[in-house]
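Now for our specimen.

. . .
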Amino acid sequence: MAGYPLCEHFDMQTFTDQDIAGMDPLTRVQLATSLPGAKPISLIGTVDVAGQFNLAPFSSLLHLGSSPCLLGMVSRPEHADRHTLANLRETRAWTINHLHPAILDAAHQCSARYPKDVSEFTATGLTAHFHPGFPAPFVAESRFRIGLELEEIIPIPANDTCLIVGRVVLVQVAQENLLENGGIDLVRIDCLASTALDTYFQIQPLARLAYAKPGHAPQRI
């Protein structure tokens, strides 16, 4: 189409669903978690009714709407002991703590399978931060933090996972990291993204484009 750059063509390897099902389990997981591309990576902070804190890395965050402001998160099957999901069911509150390079190693260590009575804050040296009246712990070292109240948990029977839907009730970010258009300056904060189980990326701006309209060529702003 005139006005648009031509796409390059590549020789592609094709994987069928049977190919994927027959892979070594770890290889299959690495492939599957790479399919959506780079995704936000954050630490999810929760607390149980006994006051025991948990901190776990998640890369399955979804924007579900702005009025009300809802975010979603996919939890893996409950066959294993999922402290985050159990805590959410009990206290109905959770935090999202976006990562930056200085806390990456500690955040990755939070993926280790610590017993329930061991707080990842204590195990990794990260600091719990609290907002008055909100029960779940934030990560003090995070530069962009969100507090949510549980709206609902939607089962996904196909693989025994579930979509956790939360209503945003708190957003914590430094004033200088707010953009004039209302967004968050993720580049200045140095937010990270991830793919697979162990690979992390820094993000860099490429372009901003004006609102697309039929009959108008894309306009960079």
Notes: The domain at 38-202 is CATH 2.30.110.10 (Pnp Oxidase; Chain A). The longest helix spans residues 25-34. The chain has a mean pLDDT of 92.
